[in-house]
Structure formats: structure tokens, C-alpha cells
């Protein structure tokens, strides 16, 4: 029996071609990547990784981290990437919930995180830094360069990615080999990827976009990527002359538009610009077309499903829409109360089904059951399907904030704020932001005698929350607006302060 995902990601005839190039000019072929992932797979097995075991990884972006992902899957494990911005208390929760056999962290964080991992029952802690060095790299270097992939079925787990709603703790979305393989193949088809493509990879690799979309599509198509440690607008502009595709979040395009070096000539050799992870403003779409003569292709996905829809490769890419369902994916809009399918132009809850839809939430069968309706996954997003078939996302049934492409869950931040001395209650909302899509904003009710101001609240949260979750502004009110049932009306707060960031 083959390893389903790994087999799907091995493009025929790719062995001698370039797979990854780094800014220093290092080029690794697909054959070299195969040998390196074999060494890592041997190292992981020697550390005790068994089929079905989780491997959690919180490290800076590097080529070696990509190899650890592929090696984990080759060894039959379940890959769990963690945002590098997570604080030790946040990491403790994920390790305790997922119970990984191995935790990979940065050497600089080992002293702080190793005791946390031990307290959560993690068997092994090894290190890997942003240069691809550490105890795990050393162990892999000593291993053989061939490895017999552990057989895995389509419905076996390949990854565990944490997500959340607006209440409660983060949930682990269980993604199978078939989920990831089918989505990569659908995107290769929809976006016309070939072995001739060169992707500029400037995204983080701890979430779906940078990891499973960018890397899996590159592998499945046998194309190559220029692998950047971070987003650098001027470097990206210089690379466009020998690349063909850029995948980014709206913030990328907003910042690139600020450069005087962005011209139609600079982008002339590019085939495709893709945007996702947050809504792309129509203004940004228009400005990009005016500057480069290219229309950005916007798509719609989520942690639980990978990508669901995409604007067309051929045909109009309409600003404010996310296009059509991908090959093999079904999407419908239903009335939230009754579940009845709605007609064209009617706003309702978006539901999807297909081989891309996750298996469920880790060790949360009741939550899993609640998120499915007659075999359809209830996304929590409100939208409509236009008469021309284009899908539009018009809002969220939940109060999720998407800032700079990252999901921010208000309840988590509200819990931290409410615990501060002098705070009566709080409400966290997302407001239109020209750079980040949405700016995290805290609305706080303080006791009359409390010595609180915006800076003191943000400072108090700095070591409790990842940086992208920190409020960009704090507003103080005497009372929060509520409806007759006592629920805070965040929609009124969003409307009242919608121009705070110039939106």
C-alpha cells in the first residue's frame, strides 16, 4: 500500500529539476529533497515517531522545516505546525491537547519550552533554527538517504491544524492524506501549474496557505519555488523577472503598490498573482490592475477545508468575489435557521462538501457533529452566489477577525483583557484597515477608579498573546451596547468605529 499523500506529491520526471532556491543562490533538486526528507524520516523514527503520532513544530521558516513536514508524512506521522508568534502559555495548550510524540522548537526557545513540553507529556524535544541547524538537523545528517515510505491510506491523518471559533479554546482540524492530495491536484488544474512555473514563496509555513497550498501545489506540479525567509517587497520585485507566480495575502499587494518600482514592465514576465487568507479590497484589485496590467486572482479557503473556490484562470476575475467552486468541490448557500437551499443572490450560510473537507475536530466529536449538516460542512461564513455563479463572501456568522492574513479569535483576547485589574468587561472587534485588512480593536469598560489607558492594556497583553493578536487600538466606553437578550452588539461597534483606521 502506498503513502497516499507523498505519492500524490511526487511529480513524474521531476527528479533532476530544481525544487527550492534560496536567496543565497543555493538550489536543491527534487532528487536532493527526496534524499534529505529520507534522512529526516529516519531521524524521526529513531526518536520514537510511530504511524499516527503527532509531531509539533514551532520554528522559523527554513528549507529544513519543509523537509521535516515531508519527512513526518513519509514516516506515517501527523504534522502539527505552530505559529512562531505563539507564547509559551499558548504552546502549552497545543502540546497538551495534541499530545505529540516529538516537539521541534528553536534552540533559543528550548530552555523556556522544554519544561512545558515535558509537563505536557511530550516524549522528545529537538531543535531547528532559522538557518536549518539544530539537534534534529544533526541527527538527520547522520542518517541514510533512502527511506521506505510508511504506507498510509487516503483517510489516515496527515496534519493537525488548530483553528477556533469565537468562543472556547482552539480546535484541532484533522486533515487527511486525501484532503491534502485532492486539494493540491485541484489547484494545479485550476491555476494551470506546470513544471515551467517558478513560485515566489514569501508566506509563513505554519498555516494552510504557505504550507499546503504553496508547497503542495509546487510539488504536485513539479514546478520550483524561490523560498524567501520573509516578505520583502523590493526583493520580490527584483525576482519577478525570473518567476511566474506570486501567492500572497492582501497586505503583500498593498505594500507592493507603495513601491515606485512596481510597474507593468516589472510584472511583465509573471503569469499569475494569487491572493487569499483575508478579503482583498476592491480598491487594491483595481490599483494592482492599473499598475501591472494583471488582475489578482482571489480565492476562498479555510483551515478545515483547504481551498474551496477560486476566481477563474481564464475569464473575468471579479473584485469582491471568490469565483467558483474548485474541481470536485460543491458549495451551497442555505438559510441559517432552516438549512433550506437559497436561490441566486440570496444571502445565507455557506456550506461545502468534497474530498477537501476535513475529517473533524481532534477529540471533539460533539463539536464535529455540530459543524456538519447532512454531510455538508457549515463554514460559518455568510455569502451568496450571484446570477453568474460567482461566490461572494459578505460577512461571517461568527466574529472572527482576519488581520494580515491571520485568524484572530476575539474571545481569547477578551478573556485576557477581562482578567486585567480594573476591567469590567471587553469586546474585541475587527475594523477595516488599509494595510492589514482588519485591525484588531478592543472596546473596554473600566471601573471608574481604574488607572487604565490604551498603552497599559496593550503592554499587559504583550507577553500573553502573539503579536498579531494584540489590539492596534483600545477604546474606552462606559457601557457596551446590548440587545434585549443581553448580547453585546458588536455590529454596532463595528459601524460606529469603522473609520478608525481610515477605512
Major sheet description: 9 strands, mixed
Supply the number of helical segments: 15
Helix content: 25-40%
Instruction: Catalogue the unreliable spans.
Output: none
The gyration radius over C-alpha positions equals 23 Å
Termini, distance in Å? 54 Å
Shape: globular
Instruction: Give the DSSP E fraction (strand runs of 2 or more residues).
Output: 25-35%
Please identify the structural class as seen in this structure.
alpha/beta
The neighbouring-strand order within the major sheet is 2-1-10-9-11-12-13-14-15
Topology, element by element:
Elements: H1 4-9, E1 18-21, E2 27-29, H2 30-46, E3 54-58, H3 63-74, E4 78-81, H4 88-98, E5 102-105, H5 110-119, E6 124-127, H6 135-141, E7 157-163, E8 171-176, H7 177-190, E9 198-201, H8 208-221, E10 224-227, H9 233-239, E11 245-248, H10 250-257, E12 272-275, H11 282-292, E13 297-302, E14 306-310, E15 324-325, E16 330-334, E17 348-353, E18 360-361, H12 365-370, E19 372-373, E20 376-385, E21 391-396, E22 401-403, E23 406-408, H13 410-418, E24 423-433, E25 437-446, H14 454-461, E26 473-476, H15 490-496
Parallel strand pairs: 1-10, 3-4, 3-5, 5-6, 9-10, 9-11, 11-12, 12-13, 25-26
Antiparallel strand pairs: 1-2, 7-8, 8-18, 13-14, 14-15, 16-17, 17-20, 19-20, 20-21, 22-23, 24-25
Short recap of the structure:
By secondary structure, the chain is α/β, with parallel strands linked by helices. The chain has 15 helices and 26 strands. The strands form 6 sheets. It has a 9-stranded mixed β-sheet. Strands 16, 17, 19, 20 and 21 form a 5-stranded antiparallel β-sheet that branches.
Amino acid at each position: 500500500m502506498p503513502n497516499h499523500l507523498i505519492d500524490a506529491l511526487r511529480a513524474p520526471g521531476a527528479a533532476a529539476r530544481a525544487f527550492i532556491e534560496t536567496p543565497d543562490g543555493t538550489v536543491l533538486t527534487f532528487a536532493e529533497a527526496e534524499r534529505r526528507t529520507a534522512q529526516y524520516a529516519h531521524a524521526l523514527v529513531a526518536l520514537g515517531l510511530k504511524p499516527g503520532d503527532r509531531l509539533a513544530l514551532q520554528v522559523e521558516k527554513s528549507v529544513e522545516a519543509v523537509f521535516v513536514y515531508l519527512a513526518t508524512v513519509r514516516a506515517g506521522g501527523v504534522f502539527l505546525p505552530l505559529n512562531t508568534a505563539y507564547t509559551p502559555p499558548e504552546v502549552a495548550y497545543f502540546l497538551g491537547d495534541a499530545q505529540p510524540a516529538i516537539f521541534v522548537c528553536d534552540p533559543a526557545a528550548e530552555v523556556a519550552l522544554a519544561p512545558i513540553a515535558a509537563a505536557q507529556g511530550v516524549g522528545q524535544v529537538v531543535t531547528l533554527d532559522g538557518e536549518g541547524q539544530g539537534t534534529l538537523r544533526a541527527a538527520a545528517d547522520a542518517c541514510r538517504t533512502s527511506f521506505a515510505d510508511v504506507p498510509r491510506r487516503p483517510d489516515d491523518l496527515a496534519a493537525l491544524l488548530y483553528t477556533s471559533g469565537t468562543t472556547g479554546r482552539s480546535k484541532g482540524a484533522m486533515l487527511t492524506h486525501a484532503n491534502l492530495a485532492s486539494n493540491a491536484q485541484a489547484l494545479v488544474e485550476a491555476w494551470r501549474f506546470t513544471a515551467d512555473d517558478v513560485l515566489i514563496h514569501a508566506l509563513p509555513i505554519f498555516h494552510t496557505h504557505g504550507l499546503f497550498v504553496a508547497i503542495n501545489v509546487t510539488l504536485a506540479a513539479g514546478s520550483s519555488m524561490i523560498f524567501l525567509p520573509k516578505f520583502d517587497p523590493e526583493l520580490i520585485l527584483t525576482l519577478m523577472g525570473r518567476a511566474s507566480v506570486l501567492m500572497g495575502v492582501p497586505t503583500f499587494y498593498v505594500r507592493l503598490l507603495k513601491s515606485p518600482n512596481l510597474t507593468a514592465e516589472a510584472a511583465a514576465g509573471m503569469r499569475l498573482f494569487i491572493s487569499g487568507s483575508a478579503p482583498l479590497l476592491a480598491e487594491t484589485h483595481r490599483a494592482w490592475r492599473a499598475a501591472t496590467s494583471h488582475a489578482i486572482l482571489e480565492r476562498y479557503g479555510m483551515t478545515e477545508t483547504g481551498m474551496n473556490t477560486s476566481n477563474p484562470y481564464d475569464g473575468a476575475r471579479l473584485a469582491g468575489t471568490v469565483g467558483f467552486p474548485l474541481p470536485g468541490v460543491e458549495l451551497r448557500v442555505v438559510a441559517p435557521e432552516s438549512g433550506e437551499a437559497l436561490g441566486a443572490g440570496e444571502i445565507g450560510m455557506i456550506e461545502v462538501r468534497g474530498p477537501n473537507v476535513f475529517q473533524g475536530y481532534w477529540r471533539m466529536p460533539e463539536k464535529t457533529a455540530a459543524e456538519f449538516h447532512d454531510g455538508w460542512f457549515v463554514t460559518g461564513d455568510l455569502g451568496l452566489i450571484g446570477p453568474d455563479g460567482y461566490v461572494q463572501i459578505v460577512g461571517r456568522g461568527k466574529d472572527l477577525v482576519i488581520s494580515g492574513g491571520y485568524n484572530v479569535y476575539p474571545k481569547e483576547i477578551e478573556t485576557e483583557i477581562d482578567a486585567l485589574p480594573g476591567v469590567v468587561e471587553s469586546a474585541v472587534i475587527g475594523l477595516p484597515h488599509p494595510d492589514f485588512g482588519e485591525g484588531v480593536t478592543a472596546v473596554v469598560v473600566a471601573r471608574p477608579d481604574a488607572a487604565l489607558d490604551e498603552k497599559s492594556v496593550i503592554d499587559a497583553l504583550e507577553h500573553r498573546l502573539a503579536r498579531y493578536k494584540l489590539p492596534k487600538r483600545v477604546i474606552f466606553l462606559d457601557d457596551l451596547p446590548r440587545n434585549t437578550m443581553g448580547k453585546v452588539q458588536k455590529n454596532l461597534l463595528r459601524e460606529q468605529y469603522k473609520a478608525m483606521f481610515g477605512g
